[in-house]
Input
Amino acid sequence: MKRIVLPIISLFILGCGNDPIPKPKAYLRLEYPEAEYKKVESSLPFTFDKNALSASVSKAKNSGNVKGINVKYPSLKATIYLSYKNVNKRNLDSLLRDAQNLTQKHTMKADEITYKPFENPKEKVYGMLYEVGGDAASQSQFYVTDSTNHFLSGSLYFYAKPNYDSIYPASEYLKKDIKRLMESIEWTEH
Output
């Protein structure tokens, strides 16, 4: 009996000591390389600046009058999907409405959706950037148009379950690339 009781008492005495101290909150520190941009000639009637961190620009499946390209970021497990449509006198309103409705579909999961208008009168590029906060499938969406011939919409998606805290650093980094893409658009056919 002494052989059993003595080790148990020793464990209680040695086990009692300082109260445990919780570890301070820590945040994931991710460092991305400084963006280096170069102009890309696409198979579509526009050029834009692309970050060297993106591996490639690939042609997406085309359906009807919609043509697309994808800007892939394998190291960030993300892709910016770009869809191009020709504008005519009758379809600009519906193209704008569709782009806005696509963003609004994320309201169920989003904590907030902010928008920033964009204008580049010199290159005839006008549009809107939507930033989606929370666990939504897409963190950024945008469209640009010249209002007469060209309409380009884009969405940022990650190849991961949308967990806002985890993808936030990459999302912020890619948001800068999207802004640069919008700023650098030049229509090549009129």
User: Anything to note?
Assistant: The longest helix spans residues 164-184. Residues 113 and 126 are 20 Å apart (CA to CA). The chain has a mean pLDDT of 84. The beta strands are 37-41, 46-51, 56-59, 67-73, 78-86, 110-120, 125-134, 138-145, 150-158, 186-187.
